[in-house]
Specification:
The chain is an all-alpha fold. The chain contains eleven helices and no strands.
């Protein structure tokens, strides 16, 4: 085969990986992310978030102090573990996520979304080889249950895209869901939502770089105010979201 004939093949592989990450980051992925506010609705209820400015600051803080230091760091460490088929390491990371969820509803969220991602992979395994690999690897790991960050890391590993790009996709998917939660719960208009998303897009690269630099000793899930609000949300009288 001539070099000219190889060019379309080498270009197609990165494009396929990029499309896979876009697919995983899409709010239409049926894992239920749209049904969670991750404490934001409780923050609105107590008046800590009440307009576009406070919503943007709240989500930017949550990105850097919560998501980057815990879930994004887990995804960054789990992707190479999946690629190496290091099942003990994968189970260790999955257990860490389960053990560090500070409230019942936050733990139920990661369990439900992880199971839903597994079901999504199962339902499409006959139609897409990469998605089929996700289902096979998650099944072989026998995680009980798979948490969402570890399951998403499996999907990212099967997409064969760079770890940093995978984390950016994960963070952007989170940002889109959280902006929609802000629009509904504050409430805000669509233009305000887009301005908040624009700020989060600017913040995501630094959050990803921070996450990639963390180790087992520096990774953490300590957000006491968020935990308090999440606990309050479990018994909140009127609510739109499951967390």
């Amino acid at each position: 085969m001539a070099p000219a004939d190889l060019a379309p093949l080498t270009e197609a592989r990165p494009a396929a990986g990029l499309l896979q990450i876009l697919w995983l980051a899409s709010p239409t992925l049926p894992v239920g992310g749209f049904s969670y506010s991750e404490g934001l609705e409780a923050a609105v209820d107590v008046g800590a978030v009440n307009d576009e400015t406070t919503a943007a600051s709240w989500l930017a803080d949550q990105l850097h102090l919560g998501l980057a230091r815990s879930d994004l760091a887990v995804v960054a460490q789990a992707i190479p573990a999946w690629q190496a088929n290091d099942l003990p390491r994968i189970r260790q990371l999955n257990t860490w996520v389960l053990n560090t969820r500070e409230t019942q509803e936050s733990r139920l969220q990661t369990e439900q979304m992880g199971r839903s991602l597994l079901e999504w992979a199962r339902s499409l395994s006959a139609l897409d080889a990469a998605v089929g690999s996700v289902f096979e690897q998650l099944q072989s790991a026998q995680l009980a249950p798979p948490t969402y960050p570890v399951a998403m890391a499996c999907a990212a590993a099967c997409a064969h895209t760079p770890v940093r790009d995978s984390l950016i996709g994960y963070a952007f998917g989170w940002a889109e869901n959280m902006v929609q939660a802000a629009i509904k719960s504050v409430p805000l208009g669509q233009s305000a939502g887009q301005r908040i998303l624009a700020r989060l897009v600017q913040e995501i690269p630094a959050a990803v770089d921070h996450a990639m630099a963390l180790t087992d000793d520096t990774r953490q899930a300590f957000t006491p105010l968020l935990a308090i609000l999440s606990a309050r949300h479990e018994t909140q009288y009127s609510r739109l979201f499951r967390s």
